[in-house]
């Protein structure tokens, strides 16, 4: 089980070649760190037809799968530079290959080398906040129905409670 902290999405690979891109939030109130539904780094975002970003899956309840391609949000909760902008823009990993450790996941069924997709999850169990994070999506030989965003290079049991994933232009 993951534990959400101040930093939830940490680079393992060199980030110099990764291109981030800022998009305004559909709901700017989730940039407020005091909002009960505040956005945290490591959550997954999709882009709307209006070229704004929103969580890739609804966090109204756990278990909602993302239905469009998504990218990881890479700005810590409550960052001043996000809140200082009128449109409340935040950065996602847009282009390039990367490997990151994430605390926003549900480890159920995850295996070394397994695929991951995005869904709404409750890392702390029933009654805790719901996030848009990583879930098992099977294997390359037998993928499940979710949209694959990467694969597991290190399981939480061997990585200090964080799942390590590789993603980017492959998916």
Would you mind describing this structure in some detail?
With 171 residues, the protein is mainly beta. It has one domain. It is 2% helix and 31% strand. It has 1 helix and 11 strands, in the order E-E-E-E-E-H-E-E-E-E-E-E. The strands form 3 sheets. A 6-stranded antiparallel sheet has the order 1-7-11-10-8-9, with no helix packed on it. The protein has a 3-stranded antiparallel sheet with strand order 4-3-5, with no helix packed on it. The longest helix is centred in the middle third of the chain and has 4 residues. The chain is globular. 40% of the residues are buried. The model has no long low-confidence stretch (mean pLDDT 88).
In short:
By secondary structure, this protein is mostly beta strands.
Q: What's the layout of helices and strands?
A:
Blueprint (H helix, E strand, L loop, with lengths): L8 E3 L7 E6 L19 E4 L5 E3 L15 E2 L7 H4 L5 E7 L2 E5 L12 E7 L9 E6 L13 E5 L8 E5 L4
Antiparallel strand pairs: 1-7, 2-6, 3-4, 3-5, 7-11, 8-9, 8-10, 10-11
Based on the model shown, name its key terms:
3-stranded antiparallel beta sheet, 2% helix, 171 residues, 6-stranded antiparallel beta sheet, globular, mainly beta, single chain, 31% strand
Instruction: Provide mean pLDDT, rounded.
Output: 88
Work out the helicity level: under 10%
Please state the structural category.
mainly beta
Largest sheet composition = 6 strands, antiparallel
- β content, as a range? 25-35%
Radius of gyration: 15 Å
How far apart are the first and last residues' alpha carbons, in Å?
Answer: 25 Å
Q: Which spans have pLDDT < 50 for at least 5 consecutive residues?
A: none
Strand order of the biggest β-sheet: 1-7-11-10-8-9
- Based on the structure, what is the oligomeric state of the protein chains? single chain
How many H/I helical runs?
Answer: 1
Count every beta strand, where a strand is a DSSP E run of 2 or more residues.
11
Task: Compute the number of structural domains.
Answer: 1
Principal-axis shape equals: globular
Order of helices and strands: EEEEEHEEEEEE
């Amino acid at each position: 089980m993951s534990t959400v902290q101040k930093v939830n999405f940490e680079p393992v690979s060199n980030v110099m070649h990764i291109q981030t891109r800022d998009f305004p939030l559909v709901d700017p109130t989730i940039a407020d760190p005091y909002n009960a539904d505040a956005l945290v780094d490591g959550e997954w975002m999709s882009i709307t037809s209006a070229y704004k970003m929103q969580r890739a899956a609804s966090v109204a309840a756990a278990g909602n799968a993302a239905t469009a391609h998504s990218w990881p949000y890479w700005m810590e909760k409550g960052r001043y530079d996000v809140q200082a902008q009128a449109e409340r823009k935040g950065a996602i990993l847009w282009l390039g290959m990367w490997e990151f450790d994430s605390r926003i996941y549900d480890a159920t069924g995850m295996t070394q080398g397994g695929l991951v997709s995005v869904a709404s999850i409750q890392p702390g169990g029933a009654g805790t906040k719901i996030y848009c994070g990583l879930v098992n999506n099977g294997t390359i030989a037998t993928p499940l129905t979710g949209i694959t965003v990467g694969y597991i290079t290190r399981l939480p049991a061997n990585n200090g409670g964080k799942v390590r994933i590789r993603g980017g232009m492959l998916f």
